[in-house]
Structures are given as structure tokens and as C-alpha cells.
Automatic annotation (TrEMBL):
It comes from Rhodococcus tibetensis. It catalyses: 4-hydroxy-4-methyl-2-oxoglutarate = 2 pyruvate; oxaloacetate + H(+) = pyruvate + CO2. Its EC number is 4.1.1.112, 4.1.3.17. This is Putative 4-hydroxy-4-methyl-2-oxoglutarate aldolase. The lineage of its organism: Bacteria, Bacillati, Actinomycetota, Actinomycetes, Mycobacteriales. Homotrimer.
């Protein structure tokens, strides 16, 4: 069933069990998490951080809005808890400025860990000063109506990625990736293994011990007909 087939609703309940892993997910970062779940869950690269160096992970609270309208976003605010990441989606593409200083300040006061907006944000000078990491598609001062209807805490598509309430949303300078809550433990374990492998490789590289291309990559070059031309004598 899609969101269009259920009547406009606000679901208060969010399964935040995977949220216990948030700190570790934030440490892994977006690229590692994306790789560790089979290169899935990544939002469109147009969804960018407002402030370089931002990093967050937390369970999603979702809202699905009419384009150019933020009533459902406003309705989602008092369902946000400590550590949550509010994900703002729209029923059709929108670049309107759905969030400004007021909404960001409310989120901070509620202890939210971050905000992802698949549309525009405004008051960005103030937003950049607030300790709330924000990712958005664009910056736009265009104001929004408060008419609705829409949904809070249903599955949504934001930045091209499916997000369900309680899924783990990870954001950093690489963008935003979403981890389905059921697979969070498994993805985290694979991510940690990857970080360990890469740490060994980086140490070898720094010590001048890069082993060169693996036999598999040499074989791939051969298979696709790439020839090595030796230096002329
Ligand atoms: O209220 C709005 O529509 C968005 C806004 O300007 C704010 O959050 O300050």
C-alpha cells in the first residue's frame, strides 16, 4: 500500500530500538555505511549539508508534505525526541523554504540530533550558527503554506531513498544514507570490519608498502582487454 492510499494520518509510535547504535553509525560515516549495506540507501547527492563537517546518526521521524506546504512538518515537531533525525519529504518535488530559524530552534529544544529536508531551507545564516546539523536539497527563502493534508511517521521517499520511522539516518559531508532498522546491527558489524581492513591498508600505504593492484584487478584488466604498453627502450 502506498501513502496515497491511506487517509492522512499522524502516527505517534516510532520503533527507536536501532537508535542505540547511532553513535557508532555516526563514527562509521556515510560512505562506509553505504558500502556495508550493498551500496544501497544513499540519498541523491543534491541533498547536502548546510555546514561542512556536520555528522549525525539517529532514528528517523518522517513527515510527508504537500509541495510548498509545511503543515505536516509542523505536526511532526512534538513527536521528535532526543537523538531523532527529522526527515522531511514531499508528495512532489519542491524547493520551497520549508524550514527556517524557528523550526530549527524548536527541533533543538526537543533534543533532535539532525534534520534532512528534501526541499529548501531558509534563514541559513542563523541555521549555520545553530548546533543542529541540517541537510537540504537547496536554499530558498520561498515561504510555505500551512494547509496540508499529509502524513507523519509513515514510510516516505526523501532524496530518492526510502525512509521508515525508526530507520537510522546517517549524514556527513558525503551526504545522507538510510539504514533499515532491522538490518542495523548487521550493517554496523560489516562497517566496523571494513574500517579495520582500511586502517591496515592505510598504514601500509603510509609506510610505502602499497602492495599494488590485487590479482583480481589484474585479471579484470586482462579480461576486458586492457593492454599494458611497456616503456620504449
Ligand atoms: O515557519 C516556517 O514556515 C519556516 C520558517 O520560516 C521558520 O522555521 O523560521
Amino acid at each position: 500500500m502506498t501513502n496515497h492510499q491511506i487517509s492522512p494520518s499522524i502516527f505517534a509510535r516510532v520503533d527507536r530500538t536501532a537508535g542505540a547504535l547511532s553513535v557508532e553509525f555516526a563514527e562509521l560515516g556515510v560512505a562506509t555505511v553505504h558500502e556495508s549495506q550493498g551500496r544501497s540507501g544513499l540519498m541523491d547527492p543534491a541533498i547536502k549539508p548546510l555546514v561542512e563537517g556536520s555528522r549525525v546518526a539517529g532514528p528517523a521521524v518522517t513527515c510527508l508534505n504537500q509541495p510548498g506546504d509545511n503543515l505536516m512538518l509542523l505536526a511532526a515537531l512534538d513527536l521528535c525526541q532526543e537523538g531523532d533525525v527529522l526527515v522531511v519529504a514531499n508528495l512532489a518535488p519542491s524547493t520551497a523554504g520549508m524550514v527556517g530559524e524557528i523550526i530549527s530552534s524548536i527541533l533543538l529544544a526537543r533534543g533532535a540530533a539532525g534534520l534532512v529536508v528534501d526541499a529548501g531551507v531558509r534563514d541559513v545564516r542563523e541555521l549555520r550558527r545553530l548546533p543542529l546539523p541540517v541537510w537540504s536539497r537547496t536554499v530558498s527563502a520561498t515561504g510555505t503554506t500551512k494547509g496540508g493534508p499529509g502524513w507523519v511517521n509513515t514510510p516516505v521517499v526523501a532524496g530518492g531513498a526510502t525512509v521508515r520511522p525508526g530507520d537510522i539516518v546517517v549524514g556527513d559531508d558525503d551526504g545522507v544514507v538510510v539504514v533499515p532498522r532491522e538490518s542495523a546491527g548487521e550493517v554496523l558489524a560489516r562497517g566496523k570490519e571494513r574500517v579495520e581492513r582500511e586502517a591496515v591498508l592505510l598504514k601500509d600505504i603510509a609506510a610505502g608498502r602499497w602492495p599494488g593492484l590485487s590479482p583480481e584487478l589484474h585479471e579484470q584488466l586482462r579480461k576486458v582487454g586492457v593492454q599494458r604498453i611497456p616503456e620504449p627502450h
